[in-house]
Amino acid sequence: MPHRAPTRARILLAALLAAVLGVVLVPAAAASAATRAAPGATAVHYVALGDSYSSGVGAGDYDLSTCLRSDRSYAPLWAAQHQVTSFAFPACGGAVTADVLNNQLGPLSTSTTLVTITIGGNDAGFADIMSTCRFSSESDCVRRVDEARTFTTTVLPGRLDATYAAIRSRAPNARLIVLGYPRLFETGWCGALAMSSTKRTKINEAADLLASVTAGRAAAAGATFADTRSYFAGHGVCASSPWIKDVTGLIEAYHPNADGYRYGYLPALNAVTG
């Protein structure tokens, strides 16, 4: 089926998504904060790594001198809730596994006790998938998602293994928690201008595959996998109370909003940290 000429809206969204998801906006330097632990409490030295789903894109209230990091993301919320001894936050919008390896491992040390990360979605081409599926035909969407599925089962496992191994090497005493991505969509009726149910279902199926592969590689690395899908169930794009932003969010499109980080990601992390 021939491609239609790109519209101004598609070009704008693709450029903005690429800026947030496809490239690192600025060099990822560790943003550190510390609070005093309660007397007698075990010291927690926490480092939050990863991509835009860790930095908090979609939550708003960004530190614009960084990679769109937000204090409304799950990592700073967890750090504040647990009164950690130290907290470093080098997660960066747009990060792929190579960016974690090259730019984010500096704060890790033998003193680090907890590391969290979301990574892998950008390696699989998240920005291009979403712009293709939003603005092209169903056949184009299915083709692009199938390409990503092949990448997820063949190339991505090795990249995840290398990333987790590097974290282990730099922070051998830390507990590593790998958080997954939610399904983005509800698949019922969503208005005439929304993606078709076929497109939304196809993207959700790819999210399930990514979760399965990531969980498997996390387990192989001795890490804990925190599955966020059940926490976001009923709150995807097209829900009456969505925790994921649609295309109207522009650079925040298809990211959790502040409620998604607080009521989706934070409880998922709390469930595995106790």
Automatic annotation (TrEMBL):
UniProt cross-references to InterPro entries, sorted A to Z: SEST-like, SGNH_hydro, SGNH_hydro_sf
The protein, known as: SGNH/GDSL hydrolase family protein
N-terminal signal peptide: 1-33
Keywords assigned by UniProt, alphabetized: Hydrolase, Signal
Organism: Micromonospora cathayae
Entries under Pfam families matching the protein: Lipase_GDSL_2 (PF13472)
CDD domains: SEST_like (cd01823)
SGNH hydrolase-type esterase domain segment(s): 48-262
Molecular-function GO terms, alphabetical: hydrolase activity
